[in-house]
Amino acid sequence: MDAQEFRKDFLENVKAEAAATGEGSCAAFVGAMAQYLIEAEVLPDFTPSFYTSTTSTRKRYRVDGYVLDEFDYTMNLIIADYDGAEERTMGKAASSTNFQRLCVFVDQALNTRLYKEIEMSTPCADLIDLLRLEKERIRKYRLLIFTDADVSDTLKNLDNLDIGGIPAECQIWDIERLFRVCCSDLGRQNIEIDFREYIPEGIPCLEASSASTAEYNSYLCIIPGKVLADIYDKYGSQLLEGNVRSFLSTKVAVNKKIRETILKCPSMFFAYNNGVSATAMDVEIERSANGTHIVSARDFQIINGGQTTASLSNTRHKDKADLKGIYVQMKLTEIDESDMDRSTELVRNISRSSNSQNKVTDADFFSTHPFHVRMEQHSRRIFAPAEAGAQYETKWFYERAKGQFLQAQMRLTPAKKRQFLLQNPKSKVITKTDLAKVRNTWNEMPHIVSKGAQTNFMKFAELIDEAWTANDAQFNERYFTETVALVILFKHLEALIPKLPWYEQGYRANIVTYSLALLHMLIRKQFKDMELDLQSIWLRQSVPEILTSVLERISEQVFYKITDPNRPTINVTQWCKRDGCWKSVQEINLTLPAEFTNVLIGKAAVKAAEKEAKKDQKMLSETEAQVKVLEYSADQWKKLSAFAMQKRMVSPDENMALKYACQIPNKMPSGYQSQRLLALLERALSEGFKL
């Protein structure tokens, strides 16, 4: 797939989404662009908030959506430049006009009576309320134009603006740029830093890795605190590796001890602070008479030391602290990117080890956690039943790493691509954040889902990590098909709500998650021995009429409840993030009709089916383990046996399994023994064993 094909597919999907929801092509375009940028970690989340008007002096202003990054207090404001028809180019005049309209909107929100004149309980009223509430804390605005035009070459470098004394960074996102980011091997926007912009010679360093290590190079550096703060000010939370950001977003961003050291004894900062660890895919080194210096780094990510970085920047900003004389030690690891799977695994292990002092769960790390791998395996293997009228079956494509779906099409011939898309339609792609959203909703946590993709996924990761450790067999084929059923239910309600008479073009995402969570609670309370038959939705690949009828009633009640004028928090979007909002929604008195039992199934039958599915998964896992064991020779297992015996790390069961493995192919370890062998191999590798 090239950029032109991506553009065509993207715009066709926008039209299809607009037709399905009835919310208009422009809104669908903005939503689709935002979703890609969330997955690529450019935006932490997105809230649609269309509003346009004219000032008393006839200046036009507009906004289409927003998100406040609560980690670095960057306010992202989005404006759409969407035509949907003709091919055109965006030049300086058009871009300047759009950026100016966002600036005028902020001015109107903060400095006029717009906040009193705008209709309450609308997404834009929430945005204005948020701007006024966080006025003193917002450190930077990021103004983004989403456009379907081609961007002129004259717009390669955009000047930053100023809004009320606060810097405003300008970005233009066209479809070609989206393609470059989302189809990169990383599936996210690269951060390329030229350190000479901050220090003429670059950052002084010592090489700390042996020449025999091909996978990485390591450097020990001393970086001025001012430079680290400057880089953070420019790139914000994008500088922090995603899982570190997710972890720190739940904590206090400014560490009190770090702040105290900066303010009271800056000369002791180097001695008191542990420093930062970072990774990069490409590091440029220059050697001179003055020593060795790092002059640039590509895909620079801080994987440990996020609080140090944020605290330097925040203390300088809030306390007007002088960072002169503050130095930070930095370990920078350059990763060999020739094998992306191997390099991703290496970054994961470095990140996990660097953060061993923090409670960061395994499930937070990248896309290689076995849960995601298993979901991917199920999605590639299981065919969904043919939908009404269709003569072929399709698959629900689980994208455990951003860009997998696009990259799967990159080298296909046109005929092969048509075949791939027929079997894996774009409408049936499930991302990690999709899965987390539907599962946490069904687990009755709509207030967590409403906190945004990043926070919600963090919570989901914690739950999955615990459940996987307890019994990974529960994440079987049935779990996957039921998850797909929940996705179908979610998408169905998303498309249904805009067509209902009470809907007022706002809070759809909140209404959907709260409605489905309430549905689950009502079933649990009113039909104690029954559950929603998710398998029947999977088999139908659609939602039964009675369920649609009930969801229409529930969603209307939810809408009026979350926008109740007497709610404790005026801002509806912020109110939906509170536990109190979920408690109030649970007070809705709604009785499910007797015929609703037609879409329910007895809990006893569900438990029996789950037991069988766990048994099947256990057998499948054991078979997969046997296949992996056979990837190693008998001599390699003999080598492991000698190492493990010397280290006294072998249990009697593992010793017996090793005896069989050492006789491959004449003898074969069982499935259970194969699992024990792989666990032993992993422990041995961590102890320094080399195959």
Strand pairing plus helix content: what structural class? alpha/beta
Low-confidence segments, ≥5 residues, pLDDT <50? 243-254, 356-365
| SS strand fraction | 15-25%
The tally of helices reads 28
- Distance between the amino and carboxyl termini: 39 Å
Number of strands: 20
Nearest-integer average pLDDT: 87
User: Any idea what the shape is?
Assistant: globular
Helical content band:
40-55%
CA radius of gyration: 27 Å
Report on the biggest sheet.
Answer: 8 strands, mixed
Summarize the structure in short.
Helices cover 49% and strands 16% of the residues.
Helix and strand topology:
Layout: H1 3-21, H2 25-39, E1 47-54, E2 60-69, E3 74-81, E4 89-90, H3 92-111, H4 114-117, H5 123-133, E5 140-147, E6 150-151, E7 161-163, E8 166-173, H6 175-182, E9 192-194, E10 203-207, E11 216-224, H7 225-235, H8 242-248, H9 256-264, H10 269-272, E12 276-280, E13 282-288, E14 291-298, E15 301-304, H11 306-318, E16 327-335, H12 340-354, H13 370-381, E17 397-399, H14 404-407, H15 414-423, E18 429-431, H16 432-442, H17 446-449, H18 453-470, H19 477-496, H20 508-526, E19 530-532, H21 534-540, H22 545-562, H23 572-575, H24 579-585, E20 600-602, H25 603-629, H26 634-647, H27 652-661, H28 671-686
Parallel strand pairs: 3-5, 4-6, 5-8, 12-16, 17-18
Antiparallel strand pairs: 1-2, 2-3, 7-8, 9-14, 10-11, 10-14, 11-16, 12-15, 13-14, 19-20
Helix pairs in contact: 1-2, 1-6, 7-11, 9-11, 16-18, 16-19, 16-20, 19-20, 19-21, 20-22, 25-28, 27-28
